[in-house]
Amino acid sequence: MSEVQSEPRQVHRSYPHNVILSDGRQVRLRLMMPGIDVYRLHAFASSLPKDDLQFLRVDITRLIVVIHWAQNIKAGLTVTVLAEEDGEVVGYASVHNDQVSWQRHLGELRIQVGQAYRGCGLGGLLGKEIFAIASDLGIETIVAQMTADQRQAIALVERYGFKHEAVLHDFVIGRDGRKNDLVVMTCNVAKLESGAQ
């Protein structure tokens, strides 16, 4: 079976650029580079509280997982926007898209913000970047998956017009062996863009 080669994804937004958070702090947003950012993202993941790591879709505290993520960027399957302050990653947002599957019109949203940067609008700003990028990539629908107890994350995507599609009971298991329900939410990208203006 031959391996399908992906074309590099074209993002029409200008990076890097600075944004001001609601508390007055300034962070720099830029696209993740597969080679140079692996260790920066890994360091960010390693700094996250245990509760944040509990139900991550992939364990980004493992360097090999972040290396695989970088390979997906190189292959055109993932676009990641990093938020930095003083050269350190303080948050990220990604859209993951399999161009050759029967779900190639879908993009999966993942956002993570460091503890010291919550409640100041960074998650929303990162979301807006990803919504615009998804449109550039021709993605029609964004999918967000989170556990039922991630109420802040659910509230954030609801503000952008995501609707509940399903609750899968005991579908995920955390690092501590505890099971939790998985909430699946979706939103049309055109609707996201109008809501993000």
Which terms would index this structure?
29% helix; 6 helices; 197 residues; 8 strands; alpha+beta
Descriptive report:
There is one protein chain. Helices cover 29% and strands 32% of the residues. The chain is of the alpha+beta class and 197 residues long. The protein has an eight-stranded mixed sheet with strand order 1-2-3-4-5-6-8-7, with helices on both faces. The protein is globular, with a radius of gyration of 16 Å. Mean pLDDT is 86; it is low at 1-8.
Entry summary:
With 197 residues, the chain is α+β, with helices and mostly antiparallel strands. The chain is built from six helices and eight strands; from the N terminus they run ββαααβββαβαββα.
List the helices and strands and how they pair.
Blueprint: E1 17-20, E2 26-31, H1 38-47, H2 50-53, H3 63-74, E3 78-85, E4 88-96, E5 106-113, H4 122-136, E6 141-147, H5 151-159, E7 163-173, E8 179-188, H6 189-196
Parallel strand pairs: 5-6
Antiparallel strand pairs: 1-2, 2-3, 3-4, 4-5, 6-8, 7-8
Helix pairs in contact: 1-3, 4-6
